[in-house]
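Contributing new records

If you add data, match the layout below exactly. Sequence lines come first and carry their own label; structure lines follow with theirs. Keep one chain per record. Anything else will be rejected by the validation script.
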Amino acid sequence: MKSDTTASAGETVKADTAKAPEKASKASPAPAAAPATSFKFAPVKSEPAAAETAPPSLGFDLLPGGDAVAKPLRMALDLSTQSARDGYVRARESQDALQKACASSVDAASRGLVTLNAQWIDLMRMHSDATLGLWRATITAPSLSEAVKAQTSGMRQAYDSTASQLKAIAETGTRVASETTEPLRKVFPGA
């Protein structure tokens, strides 16, 4: 049996029953041939698709509209924009101050380290000079008692000079540390 199923509303559809009796005769005796009938579909009212309909109200229709909502939001955004700009300006100023403080700190540290290195080199040179002088005095001493005297007095002088130079190095180190951290303390007064 063949039928036309692609008909739209209001068109006539004809059923083709000519082949149906042949198939039916093989299985059982065929009844009398049915006359060809025509069907007419009634027009159907179509409702708008689900996407075209408005979504169910979630209570938003109760909220005020227009400037009643937009004005406070606009004011809040303006305030936060201005706050962000002010924060950026403060951060930029802090960055500049911190860069200057770090540069001053590094400069003070480098000058101080040069001074400390010079003092350490002076200490080493003084030690080597004192050691050579002590050996000369010990070797050139006319007697054993004079050699012992020269050695003990040379050791005492070396100890006194070393102690005074190490004290100067410690004072220089303290001064360098203070000068190095001073610019940073000005930038961070609470630290």
